[in-house]
Design a protein that fits this description.
It is built from 5 helices and 2 strands; from the N terminus they run αααααββ. It has helices at residues 3-45, 52-76, 84-91, 97-132, 144-170, and strands at 171-173, 179-181. Strands 1-2 form a two-stranded antiparallel sheet.
Length: 184
């Protein structure tokens, strides 16, 4: 087994674990969201009081769910995409159609990864300024750095999935399951 194969198997293992953690967290957050909304409804419509903390918690849990779900969707290919070039390539009769599709996929992965790096750096700098303040959320008094943390975690998870997708795209599988680099 080559070093590249071992590296890819390690990346596959890490990616599967990340997906498992993301799935577990999304399920846990969804349950907490339903519970918080249920408490808010009961308090508002049956007890005639407002549980402001439940509304604030729901908002913050939804932010966590969105960014963890975004990372999961990156790997799953569930994000909205503009596929005009892909459709043009698919309709062409060119013998190099498969190669063009592979190049287009690699360009999409690389450009998304670059965007994540740039956005991650900008957001990290912003988040560090937020952490430096003593600002807390209005009702629950949670440090605002924790409110912004899921955005950065989501960016990191997305970038890790993009690295794995790049590795997956550049390694060709043969019939017996072994892998080799894709010829350029």
């Amino acid at each position: 087994m080559t070093q590249q194969n071992r590296l890819f198997q390690l990346a596959t293992s890490v990616n599967k674990r990340l997906l498992g953690i993301e799935t577990f967290l999304m399920a846990l957050i969804t349950i907490a969201l339903v519970a918080a909304i249920f408490i808010e409804v009961v308090c508002r419509y049956f007890l005639f009081i407002s549980a402001a903390w439940a509304e604030e918690l729901t908002r913050y849990l939804f932010i966590w769910l969105t960014y963890i779900g975004s990372a999961y969707a990156i790997y799953d290919g569930s994000h909205t995409e503009i596929d005009v070039l892909k459709q043009v390539i698919l309709k062409s009769k060119s013998p190099r159609r498969d190669t063009a599709l592979k190049v287009l996929e690699l360009l999409a992965i690389i450009s998304t990864f670059i965007f994540l790096l740039v956005f991650g750096k900008i957001f990290f700098d912003y988040m560090m300024r937020i952490w430096a303040t003593t600002q807390t959320s209005p009702t629950m008094h949670i440090p605002m750095g924790l409110v912004y943390l899921p955005v950065f975690i989501g960016i990191v998870l997305c970038a890790l999935h993009e690295i794995y997708l790049f590795m997956q795209c550049t390694i060709k599988r043969d019939g017996d399951g072994a892998s080799e680099p894709v010829a350029q």
